[in-house]
Amino acid sequence: MRRPYQYIYILPLVMNQQSQLTGALSRATIAELIAGDPPLLEQCHDISEQLQPNGFDMSVRSVSHYHADSTPGSIGVLDGDRVLPENAELSFDSDGWLHLKPGPYLITFHEIVNLPRNIMALARPRSSLLRSGVAIHTAVWDAGYSGRSQALLVVHHPAGFRIRRDARVAQLVFFPLTAADPHGYTGRYQGENL
User: Fold this and answer.
1) Model confidence over 10-34: pLDDT tens digits?
2) CB burial readout 68-96, b (16+ within 10 A) else e
3) For the segment 48-80, what is each residue's pLDDT rounded down to a tens digit?
4) Quick one: which of 60, 26, 23 has its CA closest to 40?
5) Cystine design at 156: which of 31, 67, 133, 136 (Cβ 3.0–4.6 Å)?
């Protein structure tokens, strides 16, 4: 009888100038930064529930859908070429629920993120969403960014998906830079949705 292969993955370790291991920030480090001034994250519902071993669970503040007859978005070489499509915020029912049909939605997170110039972040969907046929797509949170971020939520399940206001949907994972960026993020989304 043939035995199944066992795979062992060895991840390269990145060393900083002080010869200390670097990688994603731990729960304890994230908690310390939340308690800092300015806090890494503000307007959190329940830090004890949202704080995870490898990141922080972000929750839904609002959900918007794209109009089929609205102007399409565009992006070009120049910043002035960028046009965002119109969308309309959906209303949660009296119990705080929405039933989403298959398709794309723009979600706005409840928490405000304040990244110092030496930390960036990436987000991944919670596994329960993936198991329900729902994806979340995000961009990079650049070092120095501050604001209430947005993400693209796509419902792939043919029967749709139910979501409740303040549900935790994505985990934000923080990474230290090898050196602080002297300027930090200065793009058009700085201070968004505040």
Assistant:
1) 444 444 455 455 789 999 999 999 9
2) eeeeeeeeeeeeeeeeeeebeeeebeeee
3) 999 999 999 999 999 999 988 888 888 888 888
4) 26
5) 133
Name, in order, each residue with C-beta under 8 angstroms of 112's C-beta and a sequence gap of 6 or more: 41, 42, 43, 146, 147, 148, 194
Percent with pLDDT over 90 in the chain: 76
Decide: 171 and 126 in contact? Cβ < 8 Å.
Answer: yes
Q: How far is CA 79 from the centre of its chain?
A: 23
What are the CA-CA distances from residue 183 to residues 32, 142, 191 (Å)? Answer: 24, 11, 15
Name 105's bridge partners: 65, 153
Backbone dihedral angles phi then psi of residue 11, each to the nearest 5 degrees: -90, 135
Lookup: tokens for 83? 């046009």
Residue for token pair 């989403």: 100
